Amino acid sequence: MADTSKPIQDEKTNLHPRNAHRSRYNFQALIKAVPQLRQFVSQNEFDDLSINFTDPEAVKFLNKALLKQQYGVAAWDIPEGFLCPPIPGRADYIHYLADVLAEHNKGEVPTGNTVKVLDTGVGANCIYPLIGHKTYGWNFVGSEVDYIAAASAKKIVEDNGLAAAIEIRKQTSYANIFDGIIKPGEKFDITMCNPPFHTSSKEVNEKSSRKWKNLGQDKGTELNFGGRNNELWYEGGEPRFLNKMITESKQFARSCKWFSSLISQKATLDGCYKSLDYYKAADVKTITMSQGQKTSRVLVWKF
């Protein structure tokens, strides 16, 4: 009998306890789900099956397989050049929001289509609504300012027969976040966002170039995870974007029970706390998340 007193070495203990991706990827099962993944899988230096995570096509087909095997999403793709997200970390955000909602539901995570979530900047990949609906049965509205990304997200929804649960809305103004998306009298349980955190396209290119250099590969400014300008940078960076979001959230305090956003840079938090104090937020939470060596935070607030 196995010694169950010893920790499971392959378990990703930094991920949320309910995250389905805490164990190592089962590439045999994933290849069975999406046979095209096979061409990207090989043994690494540790004699384990893996993919080259610097190859955007390999990451995309891994995502296809994970979404099909774990969430029953049979049709998923993204246009060339758009953000290809790491699914385990995206799932973590959903699970931590579920914990927030559970706090005011007698400790039980609310499930079903009575829970309504707004994903601001849903992206071409539509990852958060897919995971959130398939895991908890929640209904989503995904907003998107980029028309190509909005069309891609809508196609994913329609191709998987999820139009009754996930609605994609086009944001017509680059200056607005909630305004123009939340309809009069509409109510959301919580909002979520993965905001752009660079200050300019120049900064994106410089950091990408350094990344490839550190990996010993000459790839210029190519990003292995993709990403168009509006996905990766915002004038003034993450601090300015969050300040705008917090300002608008006050205007929509009656429409949303909770607001939230990922925070990539810890230094952004101080300005957010000051803004939330200025607008007299009734409750503010900061949740730390980590995946591998990367640490991020979820800022959650209500009025």
UniProtKB/TrEMBL annotation:
It is found in: Cytoplasm. CDD domains: AdoMet_MTases. Its main location: cytoplasm. One of its GO terms (cellular component) is cytoplasm. It catalyses: adenosine(1618) in 23S rRNA + S-adenosyl-L-methionine = N(6)-methyladenosine(1618) in 23S rRNA + S-adenosyl-L-homocysteine + H(+). InterPro entries: METTL16/RlmF, rRNA_lsu_MeTfrase_F, SAM-dependent_MTases_sf. The keyword Transferase applies. GO terms for molecular function: 23S rRNA (adenine(1618)-N(6))-methyltransferase activity. The keyword Transferase applies. GO terms for biological process: rRNA base methylation. It is an enzyme of class 2 (transferase). Its EC number is 2.1.1.181. Keywords: Cytoplasm, Methyltransferase, rRNA processing, S-adenosyl-L-methionine, Transferase. Specifically methylates the adenine in position 1618 of 23S rRNA. NCBIfam families: PRK11727.1 (NF008725). Belongs to the methyltransferase superfamily. METTL16/RlmF family. This is Ribosomal RNA large subunit methyltransferase F. It comes from Mucilaginibacter terrigena. The gene is rlmF.
